[in-house]
Amino acid sequence: MACFLPPYWLPLLMLHVLLATSPVLSDQNDPARLLKFKSSLNNTGHLSNWDLDIPPCTGESSNWNGMICNKDGNVFGLLLDNMGLSGMIDVDTLAEVTSIRTISFMNNSFEGAMPNFLKNVTLRGIFLSNNKFSGEIGSDAFKGMSSLRSIELGNNNFSGKIPTSLTQLPLLVDLQLQNNLFEGEIPEFEQKDLNVNFASNRLVGSIPEGLSNQDPSSFAGNPKYACFIWLLSLLF
């Protein structure tokens, strides 16, 4: 099946949107916590400048590779894309870095189940596309994560049903689940201004009314949706 990739600038745009929010605070123990997190990863050559003697951020400038810094010099997020990383994403330790609001591990080599982000309840963006994650995602995997605006899980091997807790995220505007093995029916989404991509999965049933304004290509590659996609295309 054809592999759909969002525009190269979309994750950067979403990070800009996520940064344009209220300030968050960090503390002096965060560098040690980040180094503990690093120890759970493999192939960390790109992170060789993570050093306790140097602060991760100086104002909005990052001193450590992969840091997203806000104007107050706090670590607002991790941008660890395209680094050949693998191993375990230690979400428990990341949850202790309370200033983090967005995490991106796209285009790496992580495998296995999706990390449990429920302890990271203040996250606004989760970017895991183009890895080797697999398995089902629990229905309640995003329960209570009401600050989430962007979730990108495309081009992995996730399976099972689309988690219904995604429909309960009031601020969600970007949901990318393309090129996985999701099956079953698409749940009803009612978020305003939500942009989705469910292409190239194993989904069946009708397109929910709340998603009827989406581009038909967002559902392409799901054989059971062929007639609905054709009908939608008549409206565009």
Summary, kept brief:
Helix content is 14%, strand content 21%.
Structural account:
By secondary structure, the chain is of the alpha/beta class. It is built from 4 helices and 16 strands. It has helices at residues 10-19, 30-38, 91-96, 226-233, and strands at residues 41-42, 57-58, 61-62, 67-69, 75-79, 86-87, 102-104, 111-112, 125-127, 132-136, 150-152, 157-160, 174-176, 181-185, 195-197, 202-204. Strands 4-5-7-9-11-13-15 form a 7-stranded mixed β-sheet, with helices on one face. Strands 8-10-12-14-16 form a 5-stranded parallel β-sheet, with no helix packed on it. It has a two-stranded antiparallel sheet with strand order 1-6. The radius of gyration is 18 Å and the shape is elongated. Mean pLDDT is 88; it is low at 1-5 and 19-24.
Main sheet, how many strands, which sense, barrel?
7 strands, mixed
Helicity, as a percent range:
10-25%
Strand order of the largest sheet: 4-5-7-9-11-13-15
Measured distance between first and last alpha carbons? 24 Å
Shape: elongated
Number of helices: 4
Q: Return residue spans where pLDDT drops below 50 for at least 5 consecutive residues.
A: 1-5, 19-24
Rg from alpha-carbon coordinates? 18 Å
| Broad structural category | alpha/beta
Estimated share of beta-strand residues: 15-25%
DSSP summary, beta strand count: 16
> What value does the average pLDDT take?
88
Helix-strand topology string: HHEEEEEEHEEEEEEEEEEH
List the helices and strands and how they pair.
Blueprint: H1 10-19, H2 30-38, E1 41-42, E2 57-58, E3 61-62, E4 67-69, E5 75-79, E6 86-87, H3 91-96, E7 102-104, E8 111-112, E9 125-127, E10 132-136, E11 150-152, E12 157-160, E13 174-176, E14 181-185, E15 195-197, E16 202-204, H4 226-233
